[in-house]
Amino acid sequence: MANRCVPVGGDPVLSDTTRIVLRPSGMAMVSSSQNAEPPVLAPAFTFGSRVIGSAALYLRFEPRWRSARRVDAAFLLLDPMPGSLPSTTDVPIEAWRVGAEWDGASLTWLDKPALLPPQSQALARSTPPSRLRIDVTEIVRYLKEHPRSDRGLALKAPAMDAAGASFSSGSSGGEGPRLELYVQL
Fold first, then answer.
1. Which of 13, 62, 94, 130 is in the most buried spot, having the most CB atoms within 10 Å?
2. pLDDT tens digit string along 140-159?
3. Sheet with strand 153-157: strands edge to edge
4. Domain of 90?
5. What is the CATH number of the domain that holds 154?
C-alpha cells in the first residue's frame, strides 16, 4: 500500500497514532490543452490522457499537522470516477510541494507556480478502477518544519494514452481528494 511494505494483516502506520482526514481548502486542475484558459472545477480529474495532455492538480489544505509532535505518515487519496473509461496503461503520477502562491480561479497551464522537492511517485490504475494513494509523508514533514513555504501540494502526470485515469473531484458525487494524516499529538 502506497509503496510501504507491511506484514500480511498489518497496518502501514503505528497503532498509537491519531488519524486526521483533511479536505482541500483550495483546488485547481490545469492541463496543457487549456493553455491560457482559467480552470473550471469539473466532476473528474483526468491524468494521462492524450486528449487532455499533461495535467497538474493543485491542492491546498489547512495545516493541522503543525501542532502535532510528529507526522508518522501522510497519504493523498483520490477515488476513481465512477463510469470513466478504463485505460490499459498505468499512469505515473508525481506529488510535489508548490513553490509559490496560487489562485485556483486564475491558475493556467502557462502561468502555474514551480513545483519543488521533496516529491513522491505513484502509479494510477484504472483497470480495474482503484483508489490512488500517494505517500506524501516527506512533503508534509518538510511543510511542518518549514511552515512559511507551505503553498500546497500538486500532482502532475504526462499524457500517456487516450483514456488516462480519472478521479472524482467531489463536485458532483463521489468523494473528492483528501489528505490522510497519522500523527503523534
1. 13
2. 999 999 999 999 999 999 98
3. 26-31, 55-60, 153-157, 91-98, 115-124
4. 18-184
5. 2.60.120
